[in-house]
Write a structure and sequence with these properties.
It is built from six helices and two strands; from the N terminus they run αββααααα. The protein is mainly α. The chain starts with a helix and ends in a 14-residue tail after the last helix.
Length: 154
C-alpha cells in the first residue's frame, strides 16, 4: 500500500531529479517512463477503492487537480470516451424496445426493422444490440411460445 501511495503521489507532485548542472527539476510520469503514468493511475484507483480511507494528502492533491483554478501542477480534464464506445443505457433501451415489440407479436425481423427505422440505425446494429441482451430479457420477460423461433438473422 505504501508503494501505491508513493506512486499515486507522483501523479500530482512529480519526481524530484537533478539535471546535469545540478539544478533540481520536477519530472512527471508519462507513457515512456518507468513506472508509467498508467501504473500510477492504477495505484491511485487501488487506494481510492480500498476499505481504509486514503491519505489526506492524496485527497487534497486530487481536489486541487479537479478544481478549475487549482494550484497544483496537474489538472484533471474529464473527457467522454467518444465514438466507438457504446452507451449501455441507450443499448438497454434499444434492446428492451425490440423485445417489447416481440412480446406484442411482431416477428424478430419486423421488430428489428421498426426500431432501426425509428432511431435511424442499421438493422444489423440493432440486431447485435438485441442479441447481446436477448438471454437476460427473455429470462426476465418471456416471449410467447410462438415467438421463440430462431433469433438469428438469415
Amino acid at each position: 500500500m505504501h508503494n501505491d501511495q508513493v506512486l499515486a503521489g507522483s501523479l500530482f507532485y512529480g519526481n524530484l531529479q537533478s539535471d546535469d548542472r545540478g539544478l533540481y527539476i520536477t519530472k512527471f510520469l508519462s507513457r515512456k517512463t518507468r513506472p508509467t503514468e498508467d501504473d500510477a493511475r492504477k495505484a491511485l484507483c487501488r487506494i481510492l477503492l480500498a476499505k481504509e480511507p486514503p491519505p489526506r494528502s492524496l485527497l487534497v492533491a486530487l481536489a486541487h487537480a479537479f478544481h478549475p483554478d487549482g494550484c497544483g501542477e496537474v489538472k484533471v480534464i474529464l473527457k467522454k470516451r467518444g465514438k466507438g464506445h457504446s452507451d449501455p443505457r441507450r443499448d438497454d433501451s434499444i434492446a428492451f424496445w425490440v423485445h417489447r415489440l416481440r412480446q406484442r407479436g411482431r416477428s424478430y425481423r419486423d421488430a428489428i426493422a421498426a426500431v432501426a427505422d425509428s432511431i435511424d440505425k442499421n438493422e444489423k446494429h440493432v440486431g447485435r444490440i438485441y442479441g447481446k441482451h436477448l438471454k437476460d430479457l427473455t429470462r426476465r420477460y418471456p416471449l410467447a411460445a410462438s415467438d421463440r423461433r430462431s433469433n438469428a438473422v438469415t
